[in-house]
Design brief:
about 130 residues, alpha+beta, Transferase(Phosphotransferase), domain 1, three-stranded antiparallel beta sheet, 8 strands
Length: about 130
Amino acid sequence: MEREARVLGSLNHPHIAAVYGLEDGPEAGAPIRALVLELIEGETLADRIALGPLPVNEALAIARQIAVALEAAHAKGIVPGSEAANIKVTPGGSVKVLDFGLAKTFVGEGAALDVSQAQTVTAERTQRV
C-alpha cells in the first residue's frame, strides 16, 4: 500500500483530491491502513444527480473537469475506477475526484494503458470515518 500511496501522492492536480499521508491504526488482530486525503466541501456527483437532471451547461462543465482529471491520472499511468459517489462538486462548481480505490497502475515508462496488465491498487472500498 505504501507504493500505491506514493503513486497517488504524485497526482498533484486541481481536480484530484490531494493525498496527505498513509496512516496505520491498531485494531485487534489486524492493522488498519488508511490514506489521508484532502477534505473537499460540497456534495457528491451522485447526490447532485439524485436531485434531478443537471442543466446541460453544468453537466458539460462537470464532465470536462472529470476528463481533465482522468487525463492527468492517465499521464501518470493510473486509471481510476471512480464512480459518481466518489466525485465531489464544490459549492463553486469545481470537481474533485476523491477515490482511487479501484485504480489500476501500470509499470514502466511509457507503458501502454492495458488493463489486462494492471495491478489493483486496493480491493477495499473507501470508508468515511
